[in-house]
User: What shape does this take?
Amino acid sequence: MKNTVKLFSMLVLGVSLFVAVPVSAQNNKAEKKENKELKKDQKEIHAAVYQKSEKMALKEAKKLERAGWKTMGLPIAKQLDETWMKMYDRDASGYPRYMWAQEMATGNSFAAAQSQADNVAKLRIASQVSSSVAALTDVALANQEISAKEAASITKTVENAKVLVSQKLGRTFKTMELYQELSNGNYRVRVTMFYDMKAAVAIAREVMLEELKKDSDLNKAQLEKLMGMDKLMDQVAKDMPVYDEIAE
Assistant: This one.
């Protein structure tokens, strides 16, 4: 599946390069014709990518089914197709539209395994934001904006705040939920969970600022600078995991 997702990401990148070509309004008939042909080409490329993703999803779904994975919801191929599309979705600013995590958990019942997988996936999303804050802290330390002691305090506080962030995330949505019935009677559940990136970053920023104000020696102005929304959005986008970094 790793190669499949990488191939799909390359296809999406190819589309984005075509879409990114600026098309200005032109009075010249020849240029208008060229623009019209370009739009037609874009539509054809989009159609080809979607068809390709469906074929890849069907192929991958068969592998999962042979491995004993089942679903109580949409067919596996449909879940894969929707998951891949959302992984590479971008907003108008070029940021990933969603933060996401894929997790598996095993329990003595479907409900127990499902609950554990959901909770760990939420914690994984919260960890993505905290990792970005840690990266910003390293930059601030390197630029001598904060001391080593302050950096250590921030890192510790942010790490402890992950659970609080995951609890505050509230409603997430899953594009994939599969399960296996194991030979010992237990269940293994695999979920892929998404959360709106801007909302997740805003919640994490609020929680972490509150925690940092309690436990850090930094003043309010320093904290606001470190946790600036634009800066944090950029860092989270940079730290977004690739498929290989998500536990299977």
